[in-house]
Write a structure and sequence with these properties.
Layout (H helix, E strand, L loop, with lengths): L1 H4 L2 H14 L33 H10 L3 H13 L10 H9 L4 H16 L4 H17 L2 H14 L4 H10 L9
Helix pairs in contact: 3-4, 3-5, 5-6, 6-7, 7-9
């Protein structure tokens, strides 16, 4: 709508200011043309307080605008929070995919973290889910680096037979079982 009204840049600027600082633009004194004057009605408080910057939304915007530098800037800021929480809607997966071309090492780190988190759950279903990250690593990493990482996983998780079966499937290797 802001594009059709010819005020895209003003709206984007005000929205980004809010997402970064958490401060709403003043109602009556807006840089956005066409905003209604202040009505005197107080803004309802949010059910849960949102703290600025609103990194998840800023990451989403950077991904949509295909700006890997900004994606990593806000992802790093989110990680600095130190709170063990998950990003919504597999956003971490989309972050890795968005930066894989420009910053492959960062994408590798995210995919490894996701795979290892699943492997450490010690559940066959989690091993299956980890397969998608292991395949991404195998297809994007230089072969010697992938082989080193794969061998490290084999050593580290040697007692997890089900996981080793999944790891073999990354390269579509046939598993020969003892009779």
């Amino acid at each position: 709508a802001s594009i059709h009204a010819g005020v895209r840049d003003e709206v984007r600027g005000a929205a980004m200011h809010y997402l970064i600082t958490g401060k709403r633009p003043p109602a009556g004194d807006s840089v956005i043309p066409g905003v209604l004057p202040d009505t005197g009605i107080k803004v309802r408080p949010q059910p849960r307080e949102t703290t600025a910057p609103i990194t998840e939304t800023l990451i989403e915007i950077a991904i949509a605008e295909e700006r890997p530098d900004e994606v990593l800037r806000w992802y790093d800021r989110w990680e600095e929070g130190g709170v063990a929480r998950y990003l919504k809607h597999n956003l971490e997966d989309r972050i890795a995919d968005a930066v894989a071309g420009a910053y492959p090492e960062r994408a590798f780190a995210i995919w490894k973290k996701r795979a290892e988190r699943l492997i450490n759950e010690v559940r066959p279903q989690s091993y299956e889910v980890s397969l998608q990250y292991l395949r991404k690593l195998q297809s994007h990493m230089p072969p010697p680096e992938w082989e080193e990482y794969r061998d490290e996983l084999r050593r580290k998780h040697a007692r997890k037979k089900r996981f080793l079966e999944v790891l073999d499937r990354v390269e579509d290797r046939q598993i020969i079982k003892d009779i």
